[in-house]
Amino acid sequence: MEGMPEYEFRDVYVPRGVSRKAATQLLTDHAEYGHWELARMRLYPDGSRRVRLRRRIIRQLRPTW
Questions:
Q1: Helix (H, G, I), strand (E, B) or coil at 36
Q2: CA proximity to 12, closest of 1, 2, 25, 3
Q3: What is the pLDDT confidence band of residue 49, given thresholds at 50, 70 and 90?
Q4: Which of 15, 39, 44, 45 is most solvent-facing, going by the fewest CB within 10 Å?
Q5: To 5 degrees, how large is the angle CA 19–CA 38–CA 29?
Q6: Mean pLDDT of the chain
Q7: Is 10 within 8 Å of 52 (Cβ atoms)?
């Protein structure tokens, strides 16, 4: 039975002192090695960022033999 895909989420906090380039590298590493994708990013007035990453949960059927 195929329904809507299921995702797991991870929240990442990036403090205000972190450069845009360093934040991009951090998120790129999560994407490449952990198979995460960007779900939401919020930039706060103080310059900090809260990033929500998601990745699809792949269910494997177990054999019944």
A1: coil
A2: 25
A3: very high
A4: 45
A5: 60
A6: 90
A7: yes
CA distance 42 to 55: 18
What is the separation, in whole angstroms, between the first and last Cα of the chain?
20
Assess contact for 12 and 55: CB atoms under 8 A: no
pLDDT value at position 5?
82
53 neighbors 37 (Cβ within 8 angstroms): yes
pLDDT of residue 2: 64
If DSSP codes are grouped into helix, strand and coil, which group holds residue 15? Answer: coil
Q: Dig out the tokens for 2 from the structure.
A: 């195929």
- The tokens for 55 are 């990745």
